[in-house]
Amino acid sequence: MNKKLDHLKEQYEEIKASEELRERAEALFAKQPVGEAKQRASEAQPATGDARQPMDGEQPTAERTKRGEAGRKSSAGRHALWKRWVAAAAVAVVAFVGGLHTSESFAATVASLPGMEGIVRVLTLDRYHFDNGYMQADIVTPQIEGLADEKLQAMINEQLRKDSEEAIALFEEEKQAMEEMGLAEEAHMGWEFNYDIKTDTEELLVVDTYLYNVVGSSSTVHKYYNVDKKNSKLLTLPELMADHPDYVTELSDYIRKEMEKTNESGDGVYFLEYFTKIGEEQLFYVNEDGQLVICFDKYEVAPGAYGSPEFVIPADYFKWNGEN
Amino acid sequence: MEKKQLLESFIHDNLDRAYRLAYSYTRESASAEDVVSDSIVKALSNIETLQKLEAVKPWFFRILVNTALSYLRKEKRIVYFERPEEMEQILPGKEDSSDLMIAEFLEMLEPKYKTVLILRFFEDMSLKEIADVTGESINTVKTRLYRGLKLLRIEMEDTYE
């Protein structure tokens, strides 16, 4: 060959994959048992009850089957790697939603909730639907209405709309890439962006938006909007914990003990060695009883089969009274 | 051998190659790692499209190249040089490109030229295999090789095959 090219080739071959990437790659193989590579989403419901029904009675676009045991026998290293991988996937798929026709069944669901005589409610503004038998997407755009503080409402709605548009754009991009690769008929992609009303009382509205996607393996990314109706603001964890200066340590200790308890009882395989403490952007919401619920995304602290774990903090530690 | 095991052993033996190729596009290690991971996930979920077991390298590289290009489309920040004169401006005096560094090489070339040059000269793949990776005809691959070398101002004494 040519000496200039030889010279370049020598340098090129100096580029080496890191140990981390090697472990990550191995984990990807270990994660999918032989023969299950093409199996769809297997998001079992977590013990804490994360059951969500499609709002409009349609089947979810991605089949959801339970695959209880899969992925539970993992080494400590793999847990961390999953997390890494999923974090990367999450970056790639962060998304949310918006639209302008009210979903009747959704309205009905909301109406059946206690406190729905309240004025503030969530509507499905838009719905993006795609299904060609190989690739499915169902992406809605929720919008909040009736909030006294219109500025806050506009801000939340803008975020919801952006997240939804991003979900659609990412899905379309992925779809196009699959088509270009000639893999369209093999892709088995399923995307769903939707929301749940976690809490709806006189004081509080909690909207949980989630992006669920399956491209080979599945992932779910949540975002919670804790809307304080009376004070017209979004609740933040540091604000709620104003009376607990050491809340990060205290809540983390509590969660870790709960994880240990579950693991010891044989009911769970939380990644204890991975969970050190709750983060600055920790997912949380306040439930109808005013209790704080700390949430984790899928894979974050447990195998995927666990879904998205939630930890309800005892009321004697904290109870929301609508004042914080 | 079962296809998935074959892929696993291929990745095990060729992870450096996969990473290098991904890095050639992203030129940044974290993204290159993501591209590799992403490609493995895609490969696993589409393992049935692997027809011939001996074709695992072009098959996987095709997925990898497409994943990397799709990553670049999302980025859209990267500017390439199309004409030798433009490159001259950033590489003054490097007329014979004998001290061309790999970083410059990766930076200046458009992906379509980069792909064929890397696969042909660094990965020693045949024109046919490269055509399988890029999904183009052998003639297109040849044309791109010539053009790529010209951009690099590299005179080839040897033939391509």
Spell out the blueprint of helices and strands.
The complex is a heterodimer of chains A (324) and B (161).
Chain A: H1 3-12, H2 19-31, H3 76-93, H4 104-111, E1 121-131, E2 135-145, H5 150-180, E3 189-200, E4 204-215, E5 217-228, E6 233-234, H6 237-240, H7 247-264, E7 283-286, E8 292-295, E9 310-312
Parallel strand pairs in A: 2-3
Antiparallel strand pairs in A: 1-2, 3-4, 4-5, 5-6, 7-8, 8-9
Chain B: H1 3-26, H2 29-45, H3 56-75, H4 84-90, H5 102-108, H6 111-122, H7 127-134, H8 138-152
**Overall residue-averaged pLDDT value of chain A:** 72
**Helical percentage of chain B:** 55-70%
Which structural class best describes the helix and strand composition of chain B?
Answer: mainly alpha
Name of the CATH superfamily of the domain at 93-233 in chain A: Fervidobacterium nodosum Rt17-B1 like
- Give the biggest sheet of chain A: 6 strands, mixed
Number of helices of chain A: 7
Give the end-to-end Cα distance of chain A, rounded to a whole number of Å.
Answer: 72 Å
Largest interface: pair, residues per side: A-B, 44 and 52 residues
The CATH class of the largest domain in chain B is identified as Mainly Alpha
Classified by CATH, the class of the domain at 93-233 in chain A is Alpha Beta
- Going by helix content, strand content and strand pairing, the class of chain A is alpha+beta
> Radius of gyration of chain B, Cα only, in angstroms?
16 Å
**Reported CATH architecture of the largest domain in chain B:** Orthogonal Bundle
CATH architecture grouping of the domain at 93-233 in chain A: 2-Layer Sandwich
- How many strand elements of chain A? 9
Tell me the helix content of chain A: 25-40%
Enter the CATH topology name of the largest domain in chain B: Arc Repressor Mutant, subunit A
